[in-house]
Write a structure and sequence with these properties.
232 residues, seven-stranded parallel sheet, 6 helices
């Protein structure tokens, strides 16, 4: 029976890259995203890679939708990995005018991460599987105009590190991935050379390797940076 992975944020970027790479390695991919048309394109590329998959649309800021996503994933015969790529980016100064945006970010980034993990943890324990959280340098740095984004990433990283300690004796692996500039449509390429950025095939290969290792070892953190500066 093929191993099965739930990949959030699979409608584009890193999530799509991971989904395609997993499919090429024989995994069955459960692709999550917000945009159905883009998810259908991801499924087409999964099949082109020789793999199989299904998709589910859900808003990460809606906890009922997160629960429905988990129920859908758990309805399959097995679940061996959660690769969590979905996120919301928020930028701006600390201000009372931004409370609504902050609350939405807390739901979409932190609360969704915690709840989705809790929902699927029993199945991942049963399969002695893996969790991967795509985080970044804002999980240990403080950037100007990124106070809430940094706070959420710090919390997400702390949650993942503690989860590993909670679940490691069950054979569950937990990996934090910290990418630098990745060549995705969401990256602002003004003054940068995309050919020098980390390519989707690079980062997806590393993630798939981390969750495919025998569970006598765990890659707890991966930091990837472009070999050459992409700045022009």
């Amino acid at each position: 029976m093929s191993k099965t992975a739930l990949v959030t944020g699979a409608s584009s970027g890193i999530g799509r890259g991971v989904a395609i790479n997993l499919a090429a390695q024989g995994w069955h991919v459960l692709a999550h995203g917000r945009r159905e048309n883009e998810l259908r394109e991801t499924l087409a590329q999964i099949r082109k890679a020789g793999g199989t998959g299904d998709f589910f649309t859900a808003e990460m800021g809606d906890m009922e939708a997160v629960a429905a996503l988990a129920d859908w994933a758990l309805s399959h015969d097995r679940l061996d990995a959660l690769v969590h790529c979905a996120a919301k980016f928020t930028y701006g100064e600390v201000s009372t005018e931004r409370f609504d945006d902050w609350d939405q970010s807390i739901d979409q980034v932190l609360r969704a991460t915690i709840r989705l993990t809790a929902h699927v943890l029993p199945a991942i324990r049963e399969s002695e599987g893996a969790f991967v959280y795509v985080c970044g340098p804002t999980s240990w740095l403080g950037w100007k105009n990124h106070a809430i984004h940094c706070a959420l990433r710090h919390a997400q990283a702390g949650f993942a590190k503690a989860l590993f300690e909670d679940a490691r004796e069950s054979g569950v692996r937990v990996t934090l991935v910290h990418p630098g500039f990745v060549n995705t449509p969401s990256v602002n390429d003004a003054g940068k050379d995309r050919s020098r950025m980390i390519q989707l095939t690079d980062i997806s290969k590393m993630i798939v390797t981390a969750i495919s290792l025998p569970n006598t070892t765990c890659v707890t953190e991966l930091t990837l940076r472009p070999q050459r500066s992409p700045y022009l």
